[in-house]
């Protein structure tokens, strides 16, 4: 019993209570120059507190391990604890502010690993407020408006004129691929990858599907489309149905050929491979979002002797497609496909607008490279100009 | 009206998202979250459509005894089996059907993962066959590709430690960080602009193929 009581007595002895008898308490220096201000570019409800680190943080006594932040409703206090950040840090965002446009007061204390806090810092006051514009996104807005003007200009210019668009071999081959399938009496397989309807590449794939389905309807060739996402499947069914209706062959549309497979990546790859081996399509379109299964699909398609037209916006997968497929739409070519195939002047105008934007970007890159080189050689103010350019593009 | 209403909805949604990107103030900051919630609800219901599509296709195959109907039978059998196991596990573990120890976890661990890993492993063989075709030095482009690939491979996985392989290793790093990165970023800029142009075409109703 006595032993048990002795153990309980020792357990009640916290390090602090023991240290009062044996170790001298050394308070660290408090953080200085504390300021509090509204957190920029937010919805309100947040105040950013900033300070200069304690003299004992990483130097001096070097015993600071964290900073405790306290908030009060008046300058005199009381101050309630609201959060902690580690040593070396100089800011804390208080996201628990209940009311905007009300002044709150903050103090910060440094703390040692023994749990000893410094004296309080100076008191700083700040108010939270919501903003109506995200100032870090000026560059995106300006570039967006500029590029939109390019598009608008070329779309306007395109009306009633024939614009020159360079030949895209992969898109010119669409008719050839469908025609070849028809001659061989084999179906066309369209695989939209494993993306969702909110992926821009999947939307681009569906616009290509509309054109391909119209060709298959005209040639009376069967089109098979296994799907990874049921939402994409539903959209694809409607697109193919409409294409068959526009081609004057609504009765040839078979909804069961646009079907759901699975949402497991490699299950989908196995399913599509199986379809390729059983149905032996004459043409395969691999358009949309792909990951590791890309080469599995493309190589199987190659092994069945199909003409393959691939397209994706995933740069890392392009080498796979280029190696295994007959034609590959590289990035932007895929987004231009629908416009290119439709030959609609307004749609073609937007491609020209995109090209103009590209020329503008190349010009900025060239100017930046020249400024960077001259700045690196310490010639005139070019270094400062280069840094300003980098900062402007890198903001937000 | 059948075409106008979707076009108006697309325009309004596109503009709302665009504005919300620049305005952190309420209610604009909530637009994206609300639309994401809607998308999740729609995806949930769409899954029922997917299951309907899958089963209808395969049950029709079995009924008509089309070529390869045996595969359809296996698929339907396992669909019903795993579905039953899933429901059973969900009841047993109060909704957490993939809890370690549950029957569904067993199916996932001992069937789904090994099958996926098997498919993934096939990639090694497909890479070899695709590389063999791509690297045949028939044209100048293919020859350059072959040289670049050999240099990068030997540089990344040097056979031995000597001055030649050290040079290859440094050259491989330079090749990946300078010419390769420049080409990749060029494509990425094109992709970003293409996506921007396409988004603009969709929002303004110029591109309509997707909602035919």
Key traits:
heterodimer; A: 396 residues; alpha/beta; Immunoglobulin-like; Rossmann fold; six-stranded parallel beta sheet; four-stranded antiparallel beta sheet; 12 helices; 13 strands; 46% helix; elongated; B: 212 residues; mainly alpha; 3 domains; 6 helices; extended
CA-based shape of chain A: elongated
Mean pLDDT across all residues of chain A, rounded? 87
Whole-number tally of structural domains of chain A:
3
Q: Report the top-level CATH class of the largest domain in chain A.
A: Alpha Beta
> Overall pLDDT of chain B, averaged?
87
Give the helices and strands of chain A as they follow along the chain: HHEEEEEEEHHEHEHEHEHEHEHHH
Shape of chain B: extended
The overall strand count of chain B is 0
The Cα radius of gyration of chain B reads: 26 Å
Q: Roughly what percent helix of chain B? A: over 70%
N- to C-terminal distance of chain B: 13 Å
Q: Could you please describe the fold and organization of this structure?
A:
- The complex is a heterodimer of chains A (396) and B (212).
- By secondary structure, chain A is an alpha/beta fold.
- Chain A has 3 domains: 23-127, Immunoglobulin-like, CATH 2.60.40; 139-151 and 347-394, no CATH class; 163-343, Rossmann fold (3-Layer(aba) Sandwich).
- In chain A, 46% of the residues lie in helices and 20% in strands.
- The longest helix of chain A is centred in the C-terminal third of the chain and has 32 residues, at 345-376.
- The radius of gyration of chain A is 33 Å and the shape is elongated.
- Chain B is extended.
- In chain B, helix 1 crosses helix 2, helix 2 packs across helix 3 (69-92) and helix 5 packs across helix 6 (163-203).
- Chain B contains 6 helices and no strands.
- With 212 residues, chain B is mostly helical.
- Chain B has 3 domains: 1-63; 67-134, no CATH class; 138-212.
- Chains A and B meet through helix 3, helix 5, helix 6, helix 7 and helix 8 of A and helix 2, helix 4 and helix 6 of B.
